């Protein structure tokens, strides 16, 4: 068996990113929860394989499949722009286990809002707690999967976190107060409405640095051309749509199923099964919804030069008048 050639393009995903199917295959690999079980040594070994190959050094005995496996392990744990190792719960491979737990608990405890008045004292604290947990997790994910490598100070990060979580929790409480007299089935959908609205607040606030200074745009071969706020706006909008899409199956399907099951004798005799069953249903939905909604838009998105800021547009035309489309990492 010969030495592995150096012409394999591991700068790009293995599958065609111009098609939804190709992007779905890519994100099913990136969001695989089993990546969380890899040790630090395995992550470092994968990083060394990838970085050595990009530098023209092939690890002895390396096969193409092993190279691609190393690339996806590397991509699952390291930020594409900064190269920093992403905190464990901020990785996309943590989306399914973390969200199934948080979303399952949100759906379960939101149900208490519509139970008899003896539970009323639990209502607001319970909603606040789970929304705070959810939005804190989202803040970590949004920061960890931001676009670009512009530095952000601890103060800026703290301000973004406080504003994002406060705004999101306030939105959730506002929606809860509007549904006090609605049927219990309708009440089960309050968490989805709250999460959807909160995503519109949390993501832009946690990535506000990008909206202030822009994100790097490149030509087709990856050469940086300058920062663009317009590209940042487009990328963040796409991420918001994807995140809301992820929440739809997990927060819309289990409530309908649980509302039906809770009327059956089986669950009436075993009420303790309600919470784990709901968490399991949410997890099943997220296994498919997470990669499929990540695949709605390419990770390496594009924007026409004519839509960029005048200064950047002029700079690009001066450097290379033939460039009509530029590219950027939209984040996740």
Automatic annotation (TrEMBL):
Highest taxon of source: Eukaryota
Bilayer topology term: Multi-pass membrane protein
Keyword hit for Phosphoprotein: no
Protein's UniProt keywords contain Transcription: no
A single BP term in Gene Ontology: one-carbon metabolic process
Swiss-Prot/TrEMBL keywords: Amino-acid transport, Membrane, Mitochondrion, One-carbon metabolism, Transmembrane, Transmembrane helix, Transport
Sequence intervals crossing the membrane: 277-297
InterPro entries with a match to the protein in the record: Mtc
Entry's localization field: Mitochondrion membrane
GO CC term, one of those recorded: mitochondrial inner membrane
Catalytic activity: L-serine(in) = L-serine(out)
Example of a GO MF term: monoatomic ion transmembrane transporter activity
Short name of one Pfam family: SFXNs
NCBIfam families: mtc
Family listed: Belongs to the sideroflexin family.
Role description: Mitochondrial serine transporter that mediates transport of serine into mitochondria, an important step of the one-carbon metabolism pathway. Mitochondrial serine is converted to glycine and formate, which then exits to the cytosol where it is used to generate the charged folates that serve as one-carbon donors.
Name of this chain's protein: Sidoreflexin
Provenance organism: Fukomys damarensis (Damaraland mole rat)
